[in-house]
Amino acid sequence: MEKELKEISQDIRKEIALCKDIDDFWLLHKKYLSKEGRLSILFQSLKKLSTDKRASLGSEANRIKKELTDLIKTKEIKVDQSSNLDDYFDPTLPGKKPAIGHIHPLTKSINRAKMIFEGMGFSTIEGPELEDEWHNFDALNFPKDHPAREMQDTLFIKQKNREKLLEKERLVMRTHTSPVQIRYMLTHKPPFRIIVPGRVFRNEATDASHEVNFYQIEGLMIDKDISVANFKAIMENFWQSFYGKKVKIRLRPSFFPFTEPSFEVDMSCTSCKGRGCSVCSKTGWLEVMGAGMVHPNVLKNSGVDPKKWQGFAFGMGWDRIVMMKYSIDDVRLFYGGDLRFLKQF
Ligand SMILES: [Zn+2]
Predict the structure, then answer these.
(1) Ligand 1 center–CA 324 separation, angstroms
(2) CA of 197 to the centre of ligand 1 (A)
(3) How far, in Å, from the CA of 281 to the mean position of ligand 1?
(4) Distance 92 CA to ligand 1 centre (A)
(5) What is the pLDDT along the chain (345 residues), one digit of tens a residue?
(6) Which of 3, 84, 158, 219 has the most C-beta neighbours closer than 10 Å?
(7) DSSP E strand stretches across the chain
(8) What are phi and psi of 307, to 5 degrees?
(9) Residue 181 Cα to ligand 1 middle (Å)
(10) Could you tell me the distance, in angstroms and rounded to a whole number, from the CA of residue 135 to the centre of ligand 1?
């Protein structure tokens, strides 16, 4: 019995050294000092001893029990204090600023454009980036031999027996957002007033002003009595809201397969107010978009009667617009993922 008392005492001291936190001490206490603990069981067996032996061993056992209880308590307090020190929290210290995400300048400015157009009654529509040749070219009145259909400009998707497939089965990465107009007109009834922001793809070598993919914003307005004057008014309103400055719009004749008449749209230079500077190559004007009155063939292909309905469509290379707005000189910066660049916006 004396031997066992000694053993318990040694075991507890060994285990105290291994205790790391309050939970460890709690387990230790349970193992030795609780009702079911080793020391309590020993106390119970004392009853079986003779009166003399019980007295001497009993007082020794009590002494050891008190000593061990005190030792556990002291060590426990020490561990508790030091662990508290690690968790010490000073609520008066200034907080760490969490690094939060950031909206890309292209997305941010597209959102701004959407807001302006939506204020003029336009809805924002999206469509697939993987398109078929019919929606991307044929429906938009591109002749079969149009240069845009050549390998140099378009990213065609590899397909088995491609030459045997129909135009609607031959896949391309869309070269412009215009096929979304066709998809929308085929599934809705006029009048239409939509814009289509989205990514488009070209088979091009990249440099400071060319990327294999970039953003376009496309627009379409079809009603019974829409004219070029309506187009001019809407565009003037858009550019003034977008730049927050008074601007003038000028139209120059141009050619696109999907519009007739077609024009290039220039906006008075916002840097020099039309006097001429390096931004506008001393002309006082910036080319901002292509546009025109929707070609009757395009309306017909989309199930819209050109004798009843007419209107305009426009498209702008959005990356270039954002580059002009913030004086960015390399389009590749948008897609490089360099946070030093992106954090400026
Ligand atoms: Zn200028």
Answers:
(1) 11
(2) 27
(3) 7
(4) 53
(5) 778 888 888 888 888 888 877 788 888 888 888 888 888 888 888 888 888 888 888 888 888 888 888 888 887 777 777 665 556 677 888 888 887 888 899 999 999 999 999 999 999 999 999 999 999 999 999 988 887 777 668 899 999 988 888 888 999 999 999 999 999 999 999 999 999 999 999 988 888 888 889 999 999 999 999 999 999 999 999 999 998 888 899 999 999 999 999 999 999 988 888 888 887 889 999 899 999 999 999 999 999 999 999 999 999 999 989 988 888 888 889 998 888 888 888
(6) 219
(7) 123-124, 130-132, 171-173, 192-201, 213-223, 249-256, 259-268, 285-294, 310-317
(8) -80, -25
(9) 33
(10) 38
What tokens does 100 get? 């939060």
Instruction: Quote the ligand 1 centre to 286 CA distance (angstroms).
Output: 8
227: DSSP letter: -
User: For the packed helices 22-32 and 2-18, what is the interaxial angle rounded to 10 degrees?
Assistant: 170
Residues 196, 222 contacting (CB under 8 angstroms): no
| Distance in Å, CA 152 to ligand 1 centroid | 33
Distance (angstroms) between ligand 1 centre and the Cα of 275 equals 6
Among 17, 22, 148, residue whose Cα is nearest residue 80: 22
Q: Distance, CA 326 to ligand 1 centroid (Å)?
A: 14
